[in-house]
Amino acid sequence: MKAMILAAGLGTRLKPFTDKHPKALALVNGKSLLQRNIEYLQKIGITEVLINVHHFADQIIDAVTTNNGWGSTITISDETDAVLETGGGLKKAAWYFENETSFVLLNADILTNLDLQAVITQHRSSGALATLAVSVRNSSRYFLFDEAGKLCGWKNQNTGEYKPTLLNDSNTEHLQAKAFSGIQVIDTKLLSMMHQTGKFSMVDVYLDLCTTQNIMAYDHTGATLLDVGKPESLELAATLFA
Prior knowledge:
By secondary structure, this protein is of the alpha/beta class.
């Protein structure tokens, strides 16, 4: 099984560090976020990893080369011409998963002790097109799932916006709101279903497909999860991850 780590973002919330460095190279107890995620994948035997790069791409490439991929075989997807967001980045890298049945996609700025093997096991047994790691926690945006754990929509808690637009407060009372954790297992069949082009988000892909395909939740509520997006979250990460 292969994986892709999304590391092309500008990391604006992590300024001033990201004024001179890519977010993926921010250090937690002497290890970069990128190294930690590569080692996280190694724990379940995933050692073939593609990383997309844009912001200070040369620094990520140098770090990977200098450290021999931290023991994994690393392939770079170069987005220096234009950052493509999560969906566009995956679509550009689709060739990498050509001979796979499924793969892992995760954000470089997420640190967790989530049992990734359990997500993969559920994904394979359910036959889902994609399985999204989610949890019950405070967030400004939520995926909405039915009782079976099937994705039905999305809501912006601050603005009241729903997607798809046919959803509203009155017809979503039965749905469970859960926050997305930036970790997902995807069937390669999904890659040919992405009709969007250029710069777009995986959230839009999932919401486009959920009316006809099984996009399922893996609820990891209770596991440690940290979005290392701000300087203060780096400090917290140092207390949670040795």
